[in-house]
Specification:
The complex is a heterodimer. By secondary structure, chain A is an all-alpha fold. Chain A is built from 23 helices and four strands. In chain A, 71% of the residues lie in helices and 3% in strands. The chains are: A mainly alpha, B alpha+beta.
Amino acid sequence: MNKFMPWGALTLLSCLFLAVFLLLPIFKVILASLQNADGALTLEGFKIFFLEGDYLQGLFNSLLLATAVTFVTVLIGVPLAYVTVYYEFPFKSLLSILPITVIIIPELITTQSWLLVFGYNGFVTQMLLSLGIKAPRFYGWTGLIFVMAITYYVHVYMASLAALRSFDIQLEEAAQSLGRSPISARIRTMVPLLAPAILSSALVVFTLVLGNFSIAIILGPGVPLLSVMTYNSFLSEMGLNPTMQSALATISIIVVGLILFIQKRFVGKSRFEMRQGRSMKAVPIRKAGGVAAYLAVLFLLAVTLLPLGLVLVGSITDATGPVMHWGHFTLKHFVKVADYGLGIIFNSISYAFSATVLGVLFGTTASYLIIKKKNALTEALDFMAMLPLAIFGTVLGIALSQTFNAGLLPLTGTPIIMVLALTFRRLPFAVRNASANLFNIPDSIEEAAISLGTSPLKSFRKVVAPLMAPGITSAAVLMWAMTMAELASTLLLYHPSQETLPIKIYNLIDSDLMAQASAYGVVMIVLILTPIFLVTKFTKVELFK
Amino acid sequence: MIDRLSLDIEDGSFFVLLGASGCGKTTLLRTIAGFIKPFSGNLYFDDRDLTHVPAHLRNIGFVFQDHALFPNLTVHDNIAYGLKVRKFNEKSIKTDVRDIATKVGLGNLLDRFPAELSGGQQQRVALARALVVKPSVLLMDEPLSSLDCKLRIEMRSLIAEIQREIGTTTVLVTHDQEEALELATDVAVIKKGAIEQLGSPRDVYAKPQTAFVADFIGSANILDVESMRLTPENRICCDLSCGQAIHIDNDQDIMMIGGTKLVVRPEDILVATCPDPSVKQLEGRVVQVRYHGRSMSYLVKIAEDQFLVVDDSLTKTCGEIAQGSRVYATLPASLRFVRS
């Protein structure tokens, strides 16, 4: 490419930015795990991890939980996808909102809403109690697996659906023509072709569970988990020797890194690709089996969407302290939000807005450089932009807090570090969304503009940017929704004056003030939904592809 | 939709179903394969009634339009698929696969995956996979349509050669008339789910029975005859809708054909710039001259909105006729009537 163009300098600048604010902190955490208070080399942290306390148990629990949840999500997601593709049924289009739910119902809300049902003061718990039955404890493994499975099965569903839709039904006929019976032909051709997609989405779920913080910390007080232990070690070691927190952070980085390596090495590298042939045609439901499948689908849909309604009900249910008076309604929780919560709402809006602007600007530039202006540095840029996928929210928080609490750039305690944490945490999504339709923009369009006398920068602004606009818009909306709901990385970083909605909600849940938490939850959902609503209403941008 | 269609395909023949897209030829093929169950009617292989036998028990070989190779299996495993289902032993599978692969020219590609093959190579795998099980009938659904022109011609001769060698009864579906004429021992031209004409390639080309067949196979000028009478020399004088008349031989049973259209192949017409008073010619003006290298073609306007396409192989006449020239076209005396 032309060396007079500014792309090289821009790439260098982007790389520097990520190197200083993302790579360096992570590197420092890893380094700190190998140092004692005096800076001497030590393996003390890792020794403690493997020999003392329940650290090892925590890692084991995390892996066990991830395995269990992954298993359940596959069990739900794959059959659901199959039913979606195989059957034609009433209200089928409702299923297309499933991918949206991941964004509009943050896991914090899901957790809290199921606590409204099964928690200590949940209405099912209370109802059973009034009948003299003591409900089984929801906190612990049951709740963790249930809520996480409900939250994450959509990932498996989406991946299986895409794979099933691209499945060429002719392969089945080919197998039949070569002598396989119809059922055997379907299984023998479909399973090996869907397996990579299912496996890689299962691995995504696995890492999401490992890194999950909000559900884990609320529902798992009795179950030591890696991400929560990392957070706790940070709290107990604030200002002291950071060896243990660094060691825990490093171990989680290694575990996730290992999984991503497995994914890239074995799952992502399958040597075949599906050709677009004839895809399966949905048939109307006949027989009892079809009806049962349909009912299961509707039930699942209801369970997935229920949190929205539950939180709304919880927010207008009267409560005295932690005790909920089910059936008695009030608006007092919202009055309280208006009296005391405006600062929190303002914080949330300003941080999420700043992170969205920063993330989208950076994500757009980065994705453009990575896809269209490849040079020696773009590979590194791509790696760094995707790095946050492998870093737990808590680890990112620890890394930023440790690196910038003193020295040249004392940022810890300032809003800037909150915004940086939010931005980096969701940067991979911004880059991916912005690049989504960049792949479809041929290089020749830009060259055409240049050949007609437009300068390179101007042709980017006038030609490529407008074509990227839909991708950028959806990146912005998603970034907004996700940063608005982010808890893990900010909970470690916030100064009391910097409370955000998720932090407030978490603190209220922690004090068992579920009704008040629900009121904040409703406010958060409204804030998340507003831009989504506006964009879908007034533009033609497809947000959730 | 196919309604009331009866077809007898001879053992060892290469039968081609030719028709435009959507005419039902693929449906017919898939019915033979057993992927579609007919609402009524029967299907026999030799004397065996296969109407209710599911596809996987029919012992067919099917070559799909876009190959439908198993993307997760190597070339070897793709070809071996049917043999493994039939529980052949490892050793005979190996030799069978190697033999057929050599025959179709895939000998050194057995370890590749389909995604690593070119379109032509994928086609060869599909063919080998279908043939290796020694099917009682080989069914091919537009097997060459996804290949580019040169490759298509190459694969065409490979298919013809292998079919002759193995002698498997073959049914091929195509919309490419050139392919049909080259490969077939018998052609059925299909239109809207019914057979328009059935015969050898030479028959359907030289003696089309309907205007559709004439136009679909090769190109044809169709002339509307408004009235006719016998001339003193016992020839038929046809008054055409263009206002001119021609004389043709009285050697066909016009009543039985039941048509009032005449078919003239462009290559059968002779054009000249000066009239020949000894024959009844069509007079017109050249409105377009197209140069094809080996040949020329002229578009001759014989009346308002009526044109004649004439192919001229340069050797036939002396030199090129300029656009705008007045020309006289001699049509062969043995023109045939067709139904519309």
